[in-house]
Batch of 2 targets.
Target 1
Amino acid sequence: MFEWDRRLIEGPPEEQLRPVQATLLMVDCEVKRGSSQGAAHSSEYGRPAVSFEYLYEGQRYQSQRFHRQPNTEVGSMAECRALVEGLRAQPSVQAWIDPARPEFAVLSKNLRDQSLNHTVMGIGISLGALGVYRLLRSRGWTRDND
């Protein structure tokens, strides 16, 4: 199973987070653009920008964290917009707090699965190595040439 690098995650482990009701003050999608160096193609990803307030043990707090992986997009802009519209349609939302540090709160305690990214990267590296091998073979390289 894939182990998360704890440096990429803010807050305590998921099992220590506790639910609280929260009121959205602002929710929108930020655009994150990604492109390959030298490539004309670029991709747009959506990242929720949120602000919400909540009460915990009689104290009022505010947070701007959507999830525990800072600066991570949720998917395409269409997926982000659908998420934002779903949040806006609710009078209140569930947030997750760290009881030991109640100023830490997120709307989503789930971690974004990075294993697909690693799989695609592995396939890309394998295809690249195969391409180099085939190029060398087409130019007459053999093990005997070493």
Target 2
Amino acid sequence: MAPSTCFDGDKLIYLVGGTDSVGEQVPQVSSFNIETQQVTHIDNMRLGGLYGEYLFIYDNTLHFFQEYPGEVILTYNLSTKVQSQFALSSPFASILYDQKHTIFMVGKDNQFMSMSLATRQYKLLMWPSVPLAHDGNGLSFANNLVWWYSPKENKEELILLQGRGNNHRYSIDRNEWTKINDDDPVDNRVSFGFTFIYDMPQRLVN
């Protein structure tokens, strides 16, 4: 299993968890410098099982979303090296970070909510009244939320990509979903991964 990763907006990619070549768990926190191409071991995580996909950085703290054995957020402060954890309110299928202080979560029970990383307060949001995409085994694990921002329009939206006829755009300001009239060549994107590209990078860590 590959480690979870995130970019600090400058020159470091952080890596947490994963497994080694023989399948043993690696509880390490490391960084990869894209300029020097060097990997640096920072610390070892002492909490949780470190099985997850999502890693974000907020307030100089790594937030690792663990899926097994319990769905919790593990945090690691890069300055103080203090570690902590707190439980999520419900199982999640897809998570997205807005690069500021809010995460958006699609729950496995077809709930859609946001959570402030600053206050850890939840807010239940509108769901587009469509079933969550599933794989052949009935599992709804997906990484199909994409954050979209237009500097020209000063507008940000979320895009849910589940496959042909099941793709939607979400307005954060209006709490409203709109179906995309797409020509998606893929029927079901439950096992696809997505990301976004910065055309105006910003530094997230001092």
